[in-house]
Amino acid sequence: MMIQQIKKIAFSLGIFLIAACSELTEVPDFINPNTFYQSAAELELGVNAVYDDLNSRGFGYFYDRYVFECLVGYQVGWEKGPLQYNLGNVDPANEYIEDYWGICYRSINRANAVIEVADQLEDPGNEALIQRLKAEAMFLRSFYYYSLLSYFDNPPLLVGSTQNLDNLPSNSGGKRAVLDQIIADARTAGEVLPESYPASDAGRATKWAAKAVLMKAHLWDENWSAARETAEEIISTSGIQLFEDFSHNFDLAHENQGERIFEAQVSASANPSEYSVHSAHFNPEDFPSQLGGSGWSWLSATQEFRAAYHPDDKRIEGTFIESYPTGRLGLVNGTYPVVHWSATADYNLSRFGGVVRADANPNDPKQMVFGKAWSAKLTELDKHNAQTEKNTVYIRFADVLLGHSEACNENGQGDPLMGINKVRTRAGLASLPTGMGQDELRDAIIHERMQEFVFEQVMYAELRRKSKFGGSPDYLGDQIRHFSEKYNLGRTVKTSDYVLPLPLKELQGNPNVTQNPEWQ
User: Fold this and answer.
1) Distances in whole angstroms, Cα of residue 347 to Cα of each of 304, 351, 355, 360, 370
2) What CATH number should be reported for the domain holding residue 184?
3) Is the pTM of this model over 0.90?
4) Is 277 inside a domain boundary?
5) Phi, psi (5° rounding) for residue 395?
6) How many domains does the chain have?
7) Which of 23, 266, 399, 494 is least enclosed, having the fewest CB within 10 Å?
8) SusD-like N-terminal domain spans which residues (predicted)?
9) Contact 397, 249 (CB under 8 A)
10) Cis before residue 473, ω within 30 degrees of 0?
């Protein structure tokens, strides 16, 4: 897919001129990139375009991650993509893999070109701005490479803008080369980027976003000391704290604030071409369109996953839709009756399995129940899917806290309970006790991550990072086996479940790229 993109655009600076997000609103006409970039203001337009793919219009960057997440089994869907991933049916020609790969490399190529322009640009009086813009591009390059590493292990490394097909990138350096690039870019960006921006520049990468990616790369590298030190720097010097109310991470009123370290800017009212499709995919199947519901309702979590939360967990309200008006029974006395989630409601994996029964008595509360676990994090039930306003959150402070606990637990240095207990305290749960063994705490951190980050499309990557096929621990394999057995799917755990294949089009077009061993 990267090769296909290269052939289409050859030199992607021309595409730079697409504006990035609702707060970054420049949308000039197409201009020759070889003559356009003469000032820091013009360079800024190019940087804005590198942010652009963070939004998820149609089958975009974040939607592809929806589908990948269905490999685990706690998030399920009836549309062909999610359903096939639930069943473990993946291959190198998969359209979601090709799409995600192409998006990431398009953005990496744009970032590479921005960095090259910044190194040559002369704009007296704006040197500091040029360096900041270059650092933003370096952060975004590290972010997109981390996005590739999370799923593919060994993507080819491309650090210069593509002018032609003479020097195709290679993945011969493996995971090591990509990790080194992520770490170098994130570290450099973290030394240049500001801690915050004025409202006019909301959504740009900060010092803390770069430091968070750096910490996550160190975790992947199992460099526990470096991960702990980076997490402690963020915790002790950023001033960032968890929101008291978990739901503030996903509402409109608290965008670009507090623990929301990095998020894509979405506003259909500001720019109709830049909206998310999250609500369309996650809103309840039977929510009345007359009340604003729209879309396909392809995705939810299982009833069992929702039931696993402690009943006092304060995250439930911000994570799941617990009640809503249903159109399943039509109008009753002039209104749509309200249904409530129940652990005992009928549930199966079919399209309508888990919604209120069509023959339910609207006057009997025991029958007005549903079993699907619909997402409150991503949905906007009062809006048509082309009118969505919610930003897409990619990095939160809770990730830093849990990363700190993991690093401390794995290397025996620092306080491994501090971070996870802050997350649990915010959730209204009891702190974990001192004296827990390393294995026990590792399990607890994984459990906390799953309940904290469901619907944020990160857990397949996190589970595979901490798992080994046929080994111990094997969190990913355990999840897949349980899902298959519970719903009688006949799915068996395979080595190829633990990493996605490099796309077939890339392999066919680039002789310098080798397929992941699990897929050879």
Assistant:
1) 10, 10, 8, 14, 8
2) 1.25.40.390
3) yes
4) no
5) -135, 130
6) 1
7) 494
8) 90-217
9) no
10) yes
Asked if residue 44 belongs to a domain, the reply is yes
Give me 170's structure tokens. Answer: 């290679």
438 has pLDDT over 80: yes
| Three-point CA angle 139, 145, 148, nearest 5° | 145
Contact 153, 175 (CB under 8 A): yes
Question: Does a structural domain hold residue 190?
Answer: yes
In whole angstroms, how far apart are CA 8 and each of 4, 243, 330, 404, 427?
6, 44, 50, 43, 48
Taking the C-alpha atoms of residue 211 and residue 201, their distance in angstroms, rounded to an integer, is 19
Q: Which amino acid is at 496?
A: S
CB 514, CB 156: distance < 8 Å = no
Yes or no: say if 403 and 409 are a contact pair by the CB < 8 Å rule: no
CB 452 within 8 A of CB 247: no
Among the residues of 153-223, which ranges form H helices?
174-192, 207-220
User: Which two three-digit tokens encode residue 483?
Assistant: 């899902």
**Among 59-68, 144-153, 181-190, where is mean pLDDT lowest?**
59-68
Q: Are 10 and 255 in contact (CB under 8 A)?
A: no
d(CA 86, CA 420): 30
Rg (CA), the chain: 23
pLDDT tens string 84-132: 999 999 999 999 999 999 999 999 999 999 999 999 999 999 999 999 9
How many Å apart are CA 105 and CA 108, to the nearest integer? 5
What pLDDT is attached to residue 21?
A: 36
| Residue of 383, 457, 392 lying closest to 55 (CA atoms) | 392
Alpha helices in 277-338 (DSSP H): 278-282, 303-307, 315-319
What is the distance between the alpha carbons of residues 486 and 375, in angstroms, rounded to a whole number?
22
Q: Rounded distance, CA 306 to CA 309, Å?
A: 6
Domain that includes residue 54, residue range:
40-203+502-511
Asked if residue 435 belongs to a domain, the reply is: no
Look at residue 263 and give its three-state secondary structure: strand
SS in 3 state form for 463-477?
HHHCCCCCCCCCHHH
Q: Are 356 and 336 in contact (CB under 8 A)?
A: no
Give the distance, in angstroms, between the CA of residue 520 and the centroid of all CA atoms in the same chain. 28
* Three-class DSSP category at 117: helix
Handedness of CA 505, 507, 512, 514 (dihedral sign): positive
Q: Is the pLDDT of residue 184 over 50?
A: yes
Tokens linked to 86: 């639930």
What is the b/e burial string over 415-425, where b = at least 16 CB atoms within 10 angstroms of the residue's CB?
A: ebbbbbbbbbe
* 420 and 445 Cβ atoms separated by less than 8 Å: yes
Helix (H) or strand (E) holding 396: strand 392-396
Residue type, 77: G
Asked if residue 381 lies in contact with residue 460, where contact means CB atoms within 8 angstroms, the answer is no
Q: Which residues, other chains included, contact 482 with Cβ-Cβ below 8 Å and sequence gap of 6+?
A: 73
155 sits in the region (left: phi over 0; alpha: psi -120 to 50; else beta) called beta
Query: Can you tell me the distance from the alpha carbon of 120 to that of 116, in angstroms, rounded to the nearest whole number?
Result: 7
